[in-house]
Specification:
Layout: E1 3-6, E2 11-15, E3 19-25, E4 31-38, E5 90-93, E6 104-112, E7 131-139, E8 144-153, E9 158-167, E10 173-185, E11 190-198, E12 201-209, E13 213-219, E14 228-236, E15 246-252, E16 257-263, E17 269-275, E18 282-284, E19 289-300, H1 303-318, E20 332-334, H2 336-339, H3 345-358, E21 362-365, H4 387-390, H5 394-403, E22 407-412, E23 416-417, H6 422-426, E24 446-447, H7 453-467, E25 472-477, H8 497-515, E26 520-523, H9 533-536, E27 541-543, H10 550-561, E28 569-574, H11 587-594, E29 598-602, H12 610-632, E30 634-637, E31 646-652, E32 658-665, E33 675-677, E34 687-690, E35 696-698, H13 699-704, E36 707-709, E37 718-726, H14 728-732
Parallel strand pairs: 20-21, 20-29, 21-22, 22-25, 25-26, 26-27, 27-28, 28-29
Antiparallel strand pairs: 1-2, 2-3, 3-4, 5-10, 6-7, 7-8, 8-9, 9-19, 10-17, 10-18, 11-12, 11-14, 13-16, 14-15, 15-19, 16-17, 23-24, 30-31, 31-32, 32-37, 33-36, 34-35, 34-37
The chain binds alpha-D-galactopyranose.
Length: 733
């Protein structure tokens, strides 16, 4: 199986199909990192070197051995206070005010199955699919036990890491920093790839060389954020989409995070990912336990494309849960860009009627149905149906829509409160605000204190009351501002509030999932402001961006595809000129782009011509045909839309029997050159037939020279081609 312990050399080896990870307990009890990379046998202890290094301190028990320093040695979980001056993974503050910590090996266990994390999302697996290694380290002075948890899913080339801290002493200590995964590399230089952005333009691709100094990304916003995704790739300098070695680190957490990449004085690289340590100082009382959220690691020696596929497969099969895990999601229409706040029950019903007519399966009533919500200035926290505005009860509306053959879905934003709301007037102390200070407003709303159980319970009750009013089969869970005023009236230590807030949120979502197992929840935070593996444990899909412009979306979805499968990416066809960019893109192109996700619409169908509606009808028929492939196939990026004239991607059936090729022209010029698009993942020596033209192509040539993309005049034209593998006998006939 995946995990081995060699008692003679005291090495732990984690094997997956293509990778090996190794560490060692040395003579002094330090846990040193030896290796992570290409699958290999043997003990990699030879990689450690020792030399007398000036100004790099030596642990006391090494006596006068000046060649041993934690400042130089690669470590598994470096802590502050033992002479390592690089950025630590773990830092505490002791009761006496000192900051030091010294972790030494105490014991370990290996067992079948995958560890779980109390109250936190995590990758899951059956007994026979995974193994767990738990290494317990101890600081005998601070009296804490630090368990490093490793989950190994060999078939997926996935290793997960997490940390558990137990205070077994009699004094309170503070956790000042706790990264979930740290990777120390000797002898290699790397590029760092990460995904930055802003509201309505999330997850842009950035690749930089890791040089001397420290490069830090993260979020201080209390959410994973639009600005940086909690996901990093480490790649060899020469690694491309299709070749070379690379590593991914993905944080299964939706709050603040910190990712660091550092090249040290000896050209060694340290990369870390975990909780944001700013605004964090977590008190741990005697006998209390703290869990750090999980980081998912994967390794590929076949370039970035394979690295992404490893994560896609893991998230689809071992993170996503519930009845929709392997189910094609219903094609939805959302009322937001169709009507914003301006609707009644009757107009929603009209939209549903139009939707039913073209073949849409689910109507989502977005923001504006509750309290006195006529714009975004009031009523958050008052989750009571505004029957006056709707002109009917929620149940009546749902039934009317169900009678059309459509499912019904609704929008909520449970973590928020408007100052202009009954809830705030009754319970101002439930909002996160600081005594004697005016809070910072965001979208003119405040954030509820989800670190308090009674607040979570009260909102949970309100939301359940809505969900119980009729057959609600979909819930859009939104979160529309960053957290600024970190102060909970009940907390004795404010450094715990943001983490406890996340536990409150996860508890709410877990209870919803348990109580409504059939409910499809779509995550959202001003579009993709909380698009992370933590949310995907509770919500099988997330609205990818508030930007529905198909051309911008190609870039946003390109960035998103590095870490997350298309089956989890909410993507809709919207009106033109687009509401965010005023750009006009053909309806066909908008459909092609939205089909690289959980497909839907977000426009006023009544405003369309007969021809456009007919085109949508056809689009929906097409989508049904391709949906199983989109949901389950392997995703290949064929171009980089940040650099190339076309956006192109391919989804290939796992058995390689068919594939869907999508191409969008991003630029048009006079006398265009022909792009030959080299395809990927096809079965060698086979033939593929393009279904509309019935032209037959040899796989080898499609992958070697490529498919010529015909030049069409006019901006933003698209192609969507479906190819099916055919046998040689069929060709001869
Ligand atoms: C956020 C979401 C939108 C929409 C609005 C409603 O911006 O991302 O899709 O639901 O809120 O207020």
């Amino acid at each position: 199986m995946g995990i081995l312990f060699d008692n003679t050399s005291k090495t732990f080896t984690l094997h997956t199909k293509c990778s090996t990870y190794q560490m060692k307990v040395d003579d002094y009890g330090f846990l040193l990192h030896l290796y992570y990379g290409r699958y290999t046998k043997g003990t990699l202890e030879y990689l450690l070197t020792y030399a007398d290094r000036g100004f790099s301190g030596n642990p006391y028990d090494l006596h006068n051995d000046r060649t041993y320093s934690m400042d130089v040695l690669p470590q598994e979980f470096p802590c502050r206070g033992i002479g390592d001056f690089r950025s630590p993974a773990f830092a505490i503050r002791n009761e006496d005010g000192s900051f030091n910590c010294d972790l030494r090996y105490r014991s370990h266990t290996i067992y079948n199955g995958k560890y779980k994390l109390s109250g936190l999302p995590a990758v899951y697996a059956k007994e026979e699919e995974a193994q767990t290694l738990e290494i317990v380290l101890e600081d005998s002075v601070s009296k804490i036990l630090v368990s490093l948890l490793y989950g190994v899913l060999p078939e997926y080339d996935i290793i997960t890491r997490s940390v558990k801290v137990v205070n077994f002493g009699e004094q309170k200590i503070y956790l000042e920093k706790i990264q979930s995964a740290c990777l120390d590399f000797v002898g290699k230089t790397f590029d760092l790839i990460h995904f930055y952005g802003r509201h309505a333009m999330e997850r842009n691709y950035q690749r930089i060389q890791i040089e001397h100094g420290s490069y830090v990304i993260g979020s201080r916003r209390g959410t994973s954020s639009h600005q940086y995704n909690p996901f990093m790739i480490l790649a060899d300098r020469e690694t491309t989409e299709d070749a070379g070695t690379c590593y991914a680190m993905s944080f299964v957490y939706s709050g603040g995070f910190k990712g660091e990449a550092e090249k040290d004085q000896y050209n060694q690289t340290r990369v870390q990912l975990g909780l944001q340590d700013e605004l964090f100082s977590y008190p741990l009382l005697p006998s209390e336990t703290f869990y750090a959220p999980e980081v998912v690691l994967t390794y590929s020696e076949e370039g970035l494309g394979k690295l992404s596929q490893n994560l896609h497969e893991c998230y689809r099969n071992h993170l996503c849960r519930g009845v929709y895990k392997n189910k094609i999601r219903p094609i939805l229409i959302n009322s937001w860009e169709a009507a914003y706040f301006n609707f009644t029950g009757e107009t929603i019903y009209e939209l549903a009627k139009e939707a039913a007519d073209v073949g849409i399966e689910l109507l989502v009533m977005d923001d504006g149905w509750f309290g006195n919500r006529e714009d975004d200035n009031s009523s958050l926290g008052d989750w009571q149906v505004n029957e006056t505005k709707l002109g009917m009860s929620l149940n009546t509306l749902i039934q009317k829509i169900n009678n059309l053959g459509l499912k019904f879905g609704i929008w909520v934003e449970p973590e928020m409160v408007s100052e202009d709301s009954e809830l705030y007037r009754k319970h101002p102390e439930w909002a996160l605000t600081i005594p004697n200070r005016k809070p910072v407003r965001g979208r003119n709303q405040l954030v509820l204190d989800f670190s308090r159980k009674e607040v979570v319970d009260a909102i949970y009750e309100q939301i359940c009351n809505i969900l119980d009013q009729g057959k609600i089969e979909y819930l859009k869970w939104d979160m529309n501002r960053s957290i600024t005023d970190v102060y909970s009236t009940l907390a004795t230590d404010q450094g715990k509030v943001l983490y406890d807030y996340m536990l409150g949120l996860y508890d709410f979502l877990e209870r919803l999932n348990q109580r409504y197992p059939e409910l499809l929840i779509e995550g959202c935070s001003g579009g993709g402001g909380r698009f992370d593996a933590g949310m995907l444990y509770y919500t099988p899909q997330i609205w990818c961006s508030d930007n529905t412009d198909a051309i911008d979306r190609i870039k946003i979805q390109y960035g998103t595809s590095f870490g997350y499968p298309v089956s989890m990416v909410g993507s809709h066809v919207s009106a033109v000129p687009n509401h965010q960019t005023k750009r006009s893109v053909p309806l066909f192109t908008r459909g092609v782009v939205a089909m690289a996700g959980t497909f839907g619409y977000e426009l006023d169908l009544k405003a369309l011509t007969k021809e456009e509606k007919e085109e949508i009808r056809q689009q929906i028929v097409q989508y049904h045909q391709f949906a199983p492939l989109i949901q389950n196939g392997l995703y290949y990026r064929l171009s980089n839309p940040f650099q190339e004239e076309i956006g192109a991607w391919q989804i290939v059936a796992k058995d390689q029997s068919e594939f869907l090729l999508s191409v969008v022209c991003l630029e048009i010029h006079g006398n265009m050159t022909t792009t030959y698009l080299r395809l990927k993942g096809l079965k060698k020596n086979q033939w593929y037939e393009e279904q509309s033209s019935k032209k037959i192509y040899p796989a080898q040539a499609l992958m070697e020279v490529g498919l010529p993309i015909p030049v069409q005049l006019g901006e933003y034209q698209a192609y969507q081609w479906h190819f099916v593998m055919i046998s040689e006998t069929e060709i001869k006939d």
